[in-house]
């Protein structure tokens, strides 16, 4: 299991260039920086279509291919290729958006997990196709308004629950699976460093709010991300060799209403809808707590 | 001198990959390609071949993973057929765009039905891959080895397909000479990527990355560079063909086209792959009867040897082109490209187009004899000046 | 034919502005073409959009390279973007700038009209989205389109309260825009962007900038780790902002536990 890294333990060296072309307050940019900080020098990076080109100023050698669905395949190839040229020491990592992970890239992700490829998959999850202006993805939260699930007389936003890919990966038996949030950098850095030391398929799914798509002031990115964790909308946990551990366990969860109401995409929610989200969050949290410290299956 | 074995085309393909000492194989089964990856799996399982063998979950991944392995600096190989090749279409552009010398065997299967034609490869004709067509199992094995040398040449750096007809080659057994590993090692040295994706090469990797993205440059430049590499590949293919001959005593025309009994003819026909093989018999029969007609086998479909057809076209009065394909709404693909190649000639021969063998329709010696006769009539100025027929 | 180039930032509505203008001019019997500059520009990043105004169908499909008029939606943009590039001699610039045009750092054989569109937008909309205010300024300064046509188009685009608010911004700017002044005697201070692919000066993106009170900084590194731009470094236990890399998102100010960082409006 991972150990959180206190910020004062961090070195000053950066492995990413300052400034980028992402929106102000971009959560994905924070993920990108934290990943580069945790992994340092010995890694290469794969990239597919997402907002990444705007902010992944990571200095590590990178490969971008216009194969949106191909992240799992690409990283598989790189990892096996490096093994063949005698460079298994190099960590193969990809920072992949939620679309490239849970939707179009899911087949490749699941297959790479099945083969236990020696890769580190970091999903930065802004819960929609933000690079194309914010269309619904399989990671979009229930009832959220997106450009393809707009609010209208006959629509209340997204009608489906989000796909829980971290648990799916855990159920596939991946050696290391974790959720994380940009609001909890110590936790995320610890998980990245822990994952770096493991061989095989590693999956870290990071909640990275998007001010443009979620409809809040850019200064509130961390506040929103923190609220998601504190309310149980995005619990922090890790699954190491089938054992689940909750990394953040408040005595009491904050009501979801507070954090939902901070975001324009949930502005239309009525009490009934908020209650449904609250009930689902409560149920999921209760089940997670029951598994905490134990086997997930 | 190597040894002989009576083997099917798919096994010859597997031998090519093995002798080339591929380091990475991504495999996904599809009829009639399946036994290629089975042979390779057995070779890896028995220790005969030391390579990463990845059973992927689909052709899209097969192609993208091969791309990744090539980017990392490994010699990568994959193989597919028909619909599987169509499923690779999207990442194939990324492989050629990134200038990764992946080699792929295509065992033709029509995009309509299970039987062979060239519609699968022709659907990929603008993906920026070199495409070399084979007529028998020996040629598959030899071309497979040459494909790596062509693809990895610094002047080229383009992914390469070597192809043969499904069933007709894939499952037909015939004697094949297997070159010795020592000779192949000497002919084809290990792959060394100039731009491996490795830490410490960040600046160079980044430059290459920028070039791929077309950032900070004329956006058309990457297209132009690829076209220049295709042009350069013509020379490289001919060189490699000659070098192969020196090592192994076999060559395939000049590498781009092969002229069969074209001396002192008034017409020739053009065919690719197994149809070219059958056509040899038809030409033999007709020449025995005194007919002055030869065969030009088109081996390199991409890059397309326009100069060769201009040279050859100037020597005859009529050309009959057999297409195991069609660009629907337009016509036979090689027919059109050859016709376009002849445009600059001052005296152009007549040119006839024939569609044959689509969706595996059998092409018999007699069919080709008939095509030859029609072409000869055109050479004498009889019949319509241009003709397209379905055989 | 008259050609216009709009400069703005992703989120300020430059594209919407040219579309509204194109519709308003069409209402008046002109033929128009509103062109966004295609790309992956994010909110806050410099963007351009173009407008062509003609008497009959416009066939040109290339971009506008020598505009007759340039409209600048953001007062800081000219610090990093060469807004007068290619502008015809004697051409008109309509710029969002709260001070007299002679102080805007724009020079050359041009005419310059200014208006405090950010101030007007904050008043009318509560947000610094300056496109509709600049349309009002454009109408008055150029004389090419009537206020009535713009009002009509604008209300069709945003029926209801949002339309009313934007209408206020449009009208106020129409009234307050200065008459164009000759800036041929002014020394131009436009900056050219650095030709770099990754690191870019993003200072002109911001409206507010973080200001650090060193005495209150306890060196906890929260701002440092949360900065999406890696614009904050820790020097001898204190945070330091590299302003050329700061877009002014305000996360540092929001997350500072001791209140040592305050966001102050960028001085012009």
Protein described:
The complex is a heterotrimer of chains A (297), B (391) and C (268). By secondary structure, chain A is α/β, with parallel strands linked by helices. Chain A has one domain: Thiamin diphosphate (ThDP)-binding fold, Pyr/PP domains (Rossmann fold, 3-Layer(aba) Sandwich), CATH 3.40.50.970. Chain A contains eleven helices and ten strands. In chain A, strands 2-1-3-4-8-7-9-10 form an eight-stranded mixed β-sheet, with helices on both faces. Chain A has a two-stranded antiparallel ribbon with strand order 5-6. In chain A, helix 1 packs across helix 7 and helix 3 (71-84) packs parallel to helix 5 (106-114). The longest helix of chain A is centred in the last third of the chain and has 21 residues, at 271-291. Chain B is an alpha/beta fold and 391 residues long. Chain B folds into two domains: 3-195 and 223-248, Rossmann fold (3-Layer(aba) Sandwich); 257-390, Rossmann fold (3-Layer(aba) Sandwich). Helices cover 43% and strands 19% of the residues of chain B. In chain B, helix 1 (9-19) runs parallel beside helix 7 and helix 7 packs across helix 10. Chain C has 268 residues and is of the alpha/beta class. Chain C folds into two domains: 2-182, Pyruvate-ferredoxin oxidoreductase, PFOR, domain III (Pyruvate-ferredoxin Oxidoreductase, domain 3); 206-265, Alpha-Beta Plaits. Helices cover 26% and strands 21% of the residues of chain C. Chain C has helices at 14-27, 117-124, 131-142, 147-157, 161-176, 222-226, 251-255, and strands spanning 2-9, 31-36, 46-54, 69-72, 92-96, 111-115, 181-182, 208-212, 232-235, 238-241, 261-265. Chain C is elongated and about 65 Å long. At the A-B interface, strand 1, strand 2, helix 3 and helix 5 of A face strand 3, helix 3, helix 5 and helix 9 of B.
